[in-house]
Structure prediction request, 99 residues.
Amino acid sequence: MKRRRRSYDQHHRITPAPRRLLRLKQVLDRTGLPKSALYSRISAGTFPRQIPLGASVRWLESEVEEWIQLQVDASDQQARNGGIAGGTVGASPPLPLAA
Prediction:
């Protein structure tokens, strides 16, 4: 019985990572947001919308992870620009200690 040779493309094809769906509890755990804040952000368009799935909803893991990364990037950018991180903007110089 002869073995059929696969072409290079068939043998080395890169398959995309499967899309994973997250439950509400998983989204809350990953983001650290309270449920009310999560839904407020969804309504405001600043958090990925949920996907209806029968009687429940799910979120795409990739979209949630992208949102988290955007928050980290924004925080890093603010810290580099001397933003409010650390309370340095507009802060008065420290008062001398009493002797």
The longest strand covers residues 56-60. The mean pLDDT is 82.
